[in-house]
Amino acid sequence: MNNHKKFFSKIGTNYLILGILSIILQIILVNIINATNPTYIENINILTGLSSLCNYILPFPIFYWLMKKLKSQKIEKNSVGIKTFITYIAITVTLMWIGNIIGLVITNLLSGAIQSEIANPVQELINSNDIIINLVIISIIAPIFEEIFFRKFLIDRSIRYGARVSIILSATLFAFFHGNLNQFFYAFLMGGFFAYVYIKTGKITYTIILHAIINLMGSVVSLIIQNSISNLQNAMNTADLTIIIIYMSVLLIFLFIGFLSLLQYKKAKFNGEKTEINLKHPYRTMFLNYGMVFFIGFYVFEMIRQVLG
Questions:
Q1: CA-based angle 14:208:179, to the nearest 5?
Q2: pLDDT at 272 over 80
Q3: The pTM is what?
């Protein structure tokens, strides 16, 4: 195995360790809680907090130590204006919708093939949690840690292979790490775009904000809209109707801007970013190595397990 394959194998291994460590920590803490006060296990809000603790906070020092062993380099910082950032939001929303549609089509086809409905664990979690839990954990904590893990740590170490390699790598690992088919496609599209924004600007705060906005829409705003729709089904209510109209108007504007921006997309140019190492076979080098094969294999198994219930 050449040095470049070894690098990507270490990346795959590190992210596999992160995923397995998260599962081990959850098993340990759930068993401790179950032994002390089993009623806590029945509380979905506590379980969501526990999941966040095990996925992000507790593994962080170990994962940081593993990634710190790999050579990194700083990305040139560039600020963007309000107009550009609004365009970024619109593109993110559009990619989320495109990915959602692809995911729904594929899961529906699979549901028909296996004659069983494929559950959406994320949507079930969002609908079961208190809205404050969704706000704090899904809309704030998750975006911060995921952007550090899958953009900051990853791209700072892979950027010497060029922007295209870093974007594909970031999108792929981010999509698989979600561990379920429902999220895979929009996580891949948005993960790739967040990687593009980070390379373009060198500022992780931009991608954290974009990520937080999308998670807020999916975990908090969606519940408010569902509640307003439910209220309207019972009786006409001006306040709920206004909320829905505003939401739909903003969404349509973002989708219009997003689609228009994507249609006008030209080959990305990155100021100050240079490819130090040109790979002859980039995808083969990135993914056909022990670490990446085991990482992808592990999460494919998780997805199959989730599909089969």
A1: 45
A2: no
A3: 0.93
